[in-house]
Amino acid sequence: MDTLFDVNWALLTPLLVLQAILMAFALVNCAKQEETNGPKWMWILIIIIVNIVGPVIYFLIGRKNNG
Amino acid sequence: MRNFIVLFKKEMKESMRSGKWIWLPIVMMVIGISQPLTSYYMPQILEMAGNLPEGTVIEIPMPTGAEVLVGTMSQYGTIGTLLFVLALMNVISHERQTGSLSFVMVRPVSALQYIISKYISQLSILLVALAASYLLTWYYTTILFDQVPWHLMLASLAIYSLWIIFLTAVTLFVGTLLRNSGGIAGVSVLFLGVISILTTLLPKYMEWSPGNLRQEASKILIEGEWGQSASLVSLSTLALSILFLGLAVLVFKKFERFGN
After folding, report:
1. What is B220-247 written as a DSSP string?
2. Out of A11, A22, A66, closest to residue B23 by CB
3. Chain A contact for B256, CB < 8 A?
4. Were both Cys, which of A34, B42, B121, B241 would link to B11 (CB 3.0–4.6 Å)?
5. Is the pLDDT of residue B244 over 80?
């Protein structure tokens, strides 16, 4: 498994940072919502567990008032 | 003109509040830079994923920078298109469902102003997302592979932006026809998909088709020249976009007159 540690982290870090920003932004947005489509805890789980796709689905169909 | 600016500002504010300005560029950037990264680490990925017998040698030629950018374009063409249509599906139907549309239309706002303000504001989000993602991807390919000249990169970006211009017009038009946002997304994706398929099946009759835009962008990247066909496709795409926008205004006017 040492290939895993061979990767150049300078290359991968931006990708991980972008994912982290997306997740954090979705979580904050979700927490601030008064009401979501479906239970809020479900959306929080989806955002945390499903990488990238989770936050996207939340923004597309999770919000009650989607602009 | 003043009406337009007010509407445009309102659109921008709404997109800010719904977070579209943040999540769309980020997701596009992730899609974009995944492509050079997976191409670069392909040998390691294969080694880790496939239970290859000891001593297997796989020779994968290192792709050129242009090839990686072409690969990114094809990601934009599938996942990107789907994402953009989904992001646009609510633009009109949401205001219709909540009734805030009648609020807006009580004011002396013309259908043209309304549609164009929607179009320009949404288009600017999508184009910013696309450009940010593409520039970042270009930066990555420059580091990992070889450098694609910046003017070719910009030319291919410009050509590909036309696809976004077309896509936004189509989705907005479908948005004036239907009320259900799922239906809007479905019909738009179906329409765009049929155009792409017809373009590959009947290349002879579809030279003007917007489905050719991605191919033209790839051609610019790999061959390094702006062909005559590129100009034809660009012109026809612009014309079609204006046509769809015009239809959207017409349909919207009718809707405005008769209520829902």
Report:
1. HHHH-S--HHHHHHHHHHHHHHHHHHHH
2. A22
3. no
4. B121
5. yes
Q: For B181-193, how does the pLDDT look when each residue is reduced to its tens digit (9 = 90+)?
A: 889 999 999 999 9
Q: Is position A42 within any domain?
A: yes
Tell me if ipTM is over 0.90: no
| Phi, psi dihedral angles at A63 (to 5 degrees) | -80, 140
Q: Write out the DSSP string of B70-100.
A: HHHHHHIIIIIHHHHHHHHTHHHHHHHHHTH
**What value does the mean pLDDT take over residues B132-153?**
93
pTM given for the model: 0.90
In a domain, A28, yes or no: yes
Kindly state whether residue A67 falls inside one of the protein's structural domains.
no
**Beta carbons of B87 and A12 less than 8 Å apart:** no
Q: Chain B: give the shortest CA distance to residue A29, in Å.
A: 8
Q: Which two tokens stand for residue B169?
A: 């017009």
B49, amino acid identity = A
As a whole number of angstroms, the distance between CA A54 and CA A26 comes to 9
d(CA A50, CA B52): 29
Residue ranges making up the domain that contains B92: 2-258
Q: Which residues contact B139 (CB under 8 A, 6 or more apart)?
A: none
- How far apart are the C-alpha atoms of B95 and B102, rounded to whole Å? 8
Kind plus residue range of the DSSP H or E element containing A40: helix A40-49
The total number of structural domains that make up chain A: 1
Q: Identify the domain containing residue A32 by its residue range.
A: 3-62
Distance CA B212, CA B197 (A): 10
Which three-class secondary structure state does DSSP give residue A54?
helix
Query: Amino acid letter at B116?
Result: I
Say how many domains are in chain B: 1
Closest chain B residue to A6 measured between Cα atoms? B44
What is the Cα–Cα distance from A2 to B161, expressed in whole angstroms?
Answer: 42
List the single residue in B23, B37, B44 with the smallest CB-CB distance to A25. B23
Radius of gyration over alpha carbons of chain A, in Å? 15
Q: Provide the b/e sequence for A31-50 (b: ≥16 CB within 10 Å).
A: eeeeebeeeeeebbebbeee
